[in-house]
Each structure stands twice: as structure tokens, then as C-alpha cells.
Amino acid sequence: MTFRQFLSILVARKRMFFAVMLGVLIPAVVLSFVLPKRYTAVASVVVDVKPDPLSAIAYQSLMTPGVIATQIDILQSDRVGRRVVRALKLTEVPQFREQFQNDKNGEGDIESWLVDRLQKDLDVKPGRESSVINVSYKAADPRFAAGLANAFVQAYLETAVELRTDPAKQYSNFFDVRAKQAREELEKAQNKLSAFQNENGFIMTDERMDVENQRLTELTSQLVLTQSLSAEASSRQVQANSGSGDKLQEITSHPVVAALRADLSRSEARLQEISARLGDKNPQVVELQANINELRQRIDAEVKRLTVGVNVNGNISRQREAQLRAEVEAQRARVLRLKQVRDEGAVITRDIENAQRNYDNIMQRQSVTSIESQATSSNASLLTSAAPPIDPSFPKIPLNIALGIFVGGLLAVGVVMATELRDRRVREIDDVRELLGLAVIGVLPGANSKRSAGAADGVQGQRLLGHTSSPKAA
């Protein structure tokens, strides 16, 4: 079918076409004016993605669809709906109570019924590629629609604050208990260290150990020196006791012994001189011999006396060595005990440090959670408030008229074409060619037709549109 044939069919059945189209358009227009008007009020909130000033943590994932979807679910939750019902005191409105009685016969919870009814007219949609959430509400009264949209937004903001502060309050209470326990553990460890220091008379400082180690070093040095002196004294004592004490340096260098030996040498020299000259029987020689013997006896006595002193010095050196050795052992034992006490005290000190660190961490977390529990805002903020709309969102008369024309036109075309298929008629020269399969030589004009020139192929013809009888073809 050509477009020309299609137009000829529509023109031939124009009454049916307009009747069907008006049959659809008129009810659509009437319904558009008859249906009750509904108004849509829109409010919007924005989800903030800036760092949290309390916890200093940037919410990097707030722009993800999952987080925005979570915020939308919160907006549409029963918790927010119940907060709206309670804030507006809708359960006390007689109209709603009457509708609840008629709908549920007084059975069930009117608050839950109101929440379900309000959620049916609530529409929450996220902004395109943004963190803005649009909250719209439909109602017959524009002011009521705006009030409900703003109420839902306000309830959502309050609920968002609660969802943030409630866990923080629970954590704050938890950290309060843990802080008390940590403080008790810290005080217990400090008291244990104090009792340990009082019991051992030891202060946990490195200065005490330095002093004791220095004293041990000094005593060890003195012991080494004393051992050297004692060994030397022992050697002299052995030499003295073996009969060679007169050869000891301290004896030979003694002034008395040296003076006596000098006198003895002089006396012996004089004795040799006199005895050679006077003889051995001379009284002078005998007297001088007696003096020499006396000098020798005095030297021996003095040597014995000095030898006793050497023995005494040796005994004193050995006693001093033994005393220093005992002091060194006592000091070494004291240092070892102090090291042991210091190690035990270091364990207690580490317990105190761990308890202090644990207490500081808990107090830091408790301070943060305490501040968060007192927060009055969340990461969502009001962007725009809903205002009572002027024009209704339903029904949309221009749109309904356009849809009525479009649907009515389609339906009218369908009806016309279906009727034409059931009752096919010749309305164009092309119809003759298709039905008879013959070429058209000419067309006779109708009784009321006017001749028109300019037909294709030099043939003059008259359109057959609107004629009740078929034209005669030659």
C-alpha cells in the first residue's frame, strides 16, 4: 500500500477516524479535569564528603552508589516514618483516625498504618552523579505535601545524627568502664613497685648501680695491689726466715744496721792493723776484739728485730688481702643482688609502662567517642526545603491531551484500516492495476467532477476519492 492509497482511505473514512479519535480524546480530557489534583513538593539533602572534624577521617566512600543507596533506605525506613508521625502528631488527627477505623476496623497499630500510608506517596531519588538526594511527596493539599517532604527530611537528619551518636555513646560507656579498669591496674602496678622498693630498699635508678659497680671496681683494684704487696712481703718473709734476712734491702738499708756495719768495718780494719803490729795477746787487740764481737751481736739483734718486722708486715699484708677479698666478694654479691632486684623491678616498671600506655590509649579513644556522642550534626545536610507547589503534578492536562490525540489517532487509524480490509473498495487508479492486473488507458470524470489536466504519461484523469460508485475504466 502506497502512502497515497493510505491517505485516500483516511479521507474516505474520515468520519470514522475522527469519531474514534474523539472517543478517546474526550474521555481523556474529561478525566484530566475530573480527577482530583495532586501536588508534589520536593526537598533535597546533600551528603557531605569532607573530612570528619571529630575523628579526622575522610569518608572517601561516601560517593559510592552503595552509601547513597544506604542513605535512601534510611530515608524510606520505618524509623524515619515513625519519627515523622510523632513529630507531626498525625495519630491525633481525627481524619486519619477515622480512616484507620474504616480501613482496619480499629485493629493493629495506627502509627504503623500511617507509616505505610505515608511511604506510598514518598519518592526518594538520588541526584545524577552527585551526592544530592531528592525527597518528594505527593498529596492533594500543596501545603500538606510540602510539610510532609520537609518533615521526612528533618526526621532523616535527626535519625542520621542518632545513628552516628548512638554507637558513639555505647563506645563511650564501654571506654568509661575500661578506663576505670585501666586506672585501677595502673595504680595497682605503681603500688606494687612502691612496696617492692620499700621492701628491698632500692630505688629503680641507674645511679645506684653505677655507684655500686664503681665501688666494686675500686675494691678489685685495691685487692690486686694488695695481692702484689702480699706476695712480695711473703717472699721477703721466707727469705728472712731462711737465715738470709740480713740481705734484705729494707734491713741492709736500715740506718742502724748500716751504722753498726760501718763501725764493724772500721773496727775490723783497726784490729788487723793493731794485731799485726802488737800481736793477738795485746790488751788493745783483745779489747778491740771484744768490741767487734759486741757490734756483731748488736747487728744480729737488730737484724732479728727487723726480721720480725718483716714477718709482721707480711702477716698484715695477708690479712689485708683476705679482708679486701672478703669485701670484694661481699660487694660482688651486693652488685649481683642489686642486678637481680633491678631486673625484678624492671619487670614491674614495664608493667607500669604498659598499664600507662593502655590507660592513655583508652583515655584518648574515650575522649574521641565522648565528643562524637555529643555531636549535633552528621555528614548529611539540608540543601533545599520544600515549598508548597503552585501547579499540580497530577493530572497533567497538556500531556494527557497530547497522549489522547496520539493514542486516539493510532486507534482510529487501526479501526479505519481494519474496516477497510473487511470492505475493500477501489479508490485510486493503483487499486485498479492491483486488482485487475491491467494497464489504465484513461479515466472518465464523475458527474460532479471537474476536468483537470496534467496526468502522468499524458493521460488526463479525475480522482475518484469520495465517489460512491467506481469509475469506468477504458
UniProtKB/TrEMBL annotation:
Q: What is its main location?
A: membrane
Which residues are the signal sequence here?
none
Residue stretches spanning the membrane: 397-418
Source taxon at top rank: Bacteria
Q: Note whether Transit peptide occurs among the keywords.
A: no
- Taking the record's annotation, the residue ranges forming a coiled coil are 172-199, 257-305
Looking up PANTHER family in the UniProt record yields:
FERRIC ENTEROBACTIN TRANSPORT PROTEIN FEPE, TYROSINE-PROTEIN KINASE
Q: Which NCBIfam families match?
A: EpsF
Q: What is this protein called?
A: Chain length determinant protein EpsF
Q: What organism is this sequence from?
A: Pelomonas candidula
- Give the encoding gene's name: epsF
